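Title: Comparing notes on inverse folding

I've been comparing how different people in this forum approach sequence design from structure. To keep things fair, I'm posting one structure and asking everyone to reply with a full sequence. Here's the target:
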């Protein structure tokens, strides 16, 4: 069994996420000789809205919440990006997430720009009524920016299809008619797409399969550790398990479990009513958490990252793999299911160790791809079956993976650099063609 004394918990102290992504953009633009004006525009977000709004809580008191909606770049189409409900949401983080969305859309060549939104709150301690009132007021506040041709929100950490339904309904009431295309990730009954909920996890699985083929790794019996067992991580674990992988560890915000012989993923996917209202998967029938599962040792999130395994899937939040713990990573392949889980310093260490990293702007694009499919279906009121959605997703991700791999091999750079080169090249060409108004 895994010995706890072999690893230490690490707290990653990193620079501002937005400053970090700006440095990455600068490095790629300089490498590609991108026009200085275009580089300057890519470094900044086009629009930033900060809102402070009241919500009446269940006890009758009024509480003020702060929210954001950031649009980074809409050169290639409407802005697109999730809405996050979390106590640690910041303006700086939201800016960085908006940039990553711009890059994701460009990597997989869909006609979107990037945006992101968030509210500083803890949805786990709020009632359904409080969440609905918060969502509707936040939607009213950001309605000056969003719209099916302008900016299309989607679920992210702490939000789910029900939240998207409230956003769609609120926006529609303001317009006086139903506007299903204003959000994606909404319930099927009001214009959602089949396959959307599983899309990010399924896309990570496709990325793992393609990367394994490239590395000559046999997926069957490959060992996998998944940090973050929410909507993305749980689906990745489920799909990789079906591919024959042995899932040896998973974790959520409260901790994780480890069994080198493999975990019962179906058992861990048991839903609990107290978590299901937020779209969060409960992991233990008694506690609703991963920890406490039978036949498994309890570990921390930091310990999970350093386990002996073939494939590591960081699918939680940003900045989990950094210079403090990167040298202790034992996985041969990292599939980034979260946004920005690996710092620049860690990238260098992992590269020197020969670890292959499939970056977030490629690996976790399944959600934005199927969000695009949903948007198209909503705008046309013509819907596809799930097999069509999954087939289109696989083709789109395969094409993107092969393009990024080709750049990586030709330019002799890692996959993240290659993905950024592909994305920034596409955005820069579009910006040059459109020019500057007036």
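Reply #1:
Here's my take.
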């Amino acid at each position: 069994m895994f010995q706890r004394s072999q690893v230490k918990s690490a707290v990653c102290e990193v620079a501002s996420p937005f400053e970090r992504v700006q440095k990455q953009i600068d490095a790629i633009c300089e490498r590609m000789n991108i026009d200085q004006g275009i580089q300057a525009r890519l470094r900044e977000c086009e629009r930033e809205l900060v809102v402070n709004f009241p919500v009446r809580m269940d006890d009758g008191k009024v509480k003020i919440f702060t929210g954001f909606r950031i649009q980074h770049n809409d050169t290639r189409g409407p802005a697109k990006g999730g809405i996050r409900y979390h106590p640690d949401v910041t303006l700086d983080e939201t800016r960085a997430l908006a940039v990553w969305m711009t890059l994701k859309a460009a990597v997989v060549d869909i006609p979107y720009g990037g945006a992101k939104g968030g509210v500083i709150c803890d949805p786990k301690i709020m009632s359904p009524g409080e969440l609905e009132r918060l969502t509707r007021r936040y939607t009213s506040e950001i309605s000056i920016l969003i719209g099916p041709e302008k900016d299309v929100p989607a679920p992210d950490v702490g939000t789910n299809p029900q939240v998207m339904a409230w956003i769609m309904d609120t926006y529609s009431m303001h317009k006086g008619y139903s506007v299903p295309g204003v959000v994606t990730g909404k319930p099927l009954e009001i214009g959602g797409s089949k396959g959307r909920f599983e899309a990010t996890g399924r896309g990570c699985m496709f990325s793992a399969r393609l990367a394994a083929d490239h590395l000559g790794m046999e997926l069957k019996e490959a060992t996998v550790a998944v940090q973050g067992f929410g909507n993305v991580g749980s689906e990745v674990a489920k799909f990789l398990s079906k591919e024959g992988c042995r899932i040896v560890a998973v974790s959520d915000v409260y901790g994780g479990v480890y069994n080198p012989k493999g975990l019962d993923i179906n058992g861990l996917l048991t839903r609990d009513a107290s978590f299901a209202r937020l779209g969060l998967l409960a992991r233990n029938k008694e506690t609703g958490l991963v920890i406490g599962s039978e036949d498994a040792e309890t570990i921390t999130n930091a310990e999970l990252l350093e386990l002996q395994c073939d494939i590591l899937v960081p699918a939680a939040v940003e900045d989990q793999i950094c210079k403090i713990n990167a040298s202790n990573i034992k996985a041969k392949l990292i599939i980034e299911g979260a946004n920005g889980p690996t710092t620049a310093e860690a990238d260098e260490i992992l590269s020197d160790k020969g670890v292959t990293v499939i970056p977030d702007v490629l690996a976790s694009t399944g959600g934005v791809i199927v969000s695009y499919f949903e948007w198209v279906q909503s705008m046309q009121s013509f819907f596809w079956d799930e097999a069509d959605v999954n087939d289109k997703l696989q083709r789109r991700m395969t094409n993107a993976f092969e393009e990024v791999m080709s750049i990586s091999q030709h330019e002799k750079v890692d996959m993240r650099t290659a993905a950024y080169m592909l994305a920034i090249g596409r955005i820069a060409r579009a910006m040059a063609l459109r020019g500057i108004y007036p």
